[in-house]
Design goal:
four-stranded antiparallel sheet, globular, 10 strands, Butyryl-CoA Dehydrogenase, subunit A, domain 3, single chain, about 50% helix, about 375 residues, Butyryl-Coa Dehydrogenase, subunit A, domain 1, four-stranded mixed sheet, Butyryl-CoA Dehydrogenase, subunit A, domain 2
Amino acid sequence: MDFDLTEEQRLLKESVDRLIADSYGDFEKRRHHQDNPRGYSPVLWAQYAELGLLGLPFSEEQGGFGGGPVETMIVMEALGRGLALEPYLASIVLGGGFLRLGGREELIGDVVGGTATLAFAQIERQSRNDLHDVATTARRTEAGWVLEGAKSLVLHGDSATHLIVSARNAGARRDRAGISLFLVPADAAGLSRRGYATQDGLRAAEVLLEKVALPPEALIGAEGEGLPLMERVVDIALAALCAEAVGAMEALHELTLDYLKQRKQFGTTIGSFQAVQHRAADMLVALEQARSMTMYAAMMAENPDPALRRPALAAAKALVNRSAELIGKEAIQLHGGIAMTMEYKAGHYFKRLTMLINQFGETDEHIRVVAEAGGLPAAA
């Protein structure tokens, strides 16, 4: 595989790196962005739109810029390095993925322009990481559909203008068939949201759906066949999560090395101790392994064959999770007590990496997927 960036991709990387450095280089700026009721800066989100970042995954026919997972990887790495708060994953990668792959192009223009934001309402209290565990119901009526149920941990769900909701219209709670997807306006009658801050500084919401009436065109894709679409979009999101984790790990590794060169003990910098140097080297090895697997994940994310795509993305996420855990723990231990303060970046990177590790499946779950597939497919 060719992992070299094209000229256009290098220019994209330079522009997005510069934007994030200007917007998040000073850690106090992040705190200022968090104070907004949305949990992020609407002004900065508008800048994303002006630079074309919100249109990257969409084709030119859909009003976008015809980018792919590699372009998404570039953006997500930069967001990870800056500990960015904007809902790029929720609205563009996940929400945008449902729109472009589910045949719902009428909202794409507003998403690309930054006036509409999306959130994926899928998790339920009993479902853990099983996409097919859906208790929320969708009942067909003469006027369309009526949704009843509750969703938890909806990333950026308290500020999104539209929610993409999974609901069951047939079968038992854990059946793979009978799940449909719906595009629901956040101001729909019967829909209520309770927003809160997550441990990594982002926002999420608990969503309650009480007899939410929707027109027939609210359905995304085919009735009862929402699970394959969810799995495909989530696999694309896994590649994006890996990229964000690499960006955060890279920044945390650099922060740790800088600290080791300054902190003195017994009259010398602690970075001169051989044991400490070995631990820093282990962090670098883990980072480069994660970077390689993230590139592989980007190459495989849009593969239409789930038999090839699913184990490839699971393998990448499992390895990136292990690297994130090692780098996060080593950084905290090598920093000592300062890493646990709210004023210092290291602890915030650790919290973000912890959330990324657990999003859409923990390490053991992804290893199980690879094992059940018999390892990575030869065609990959």
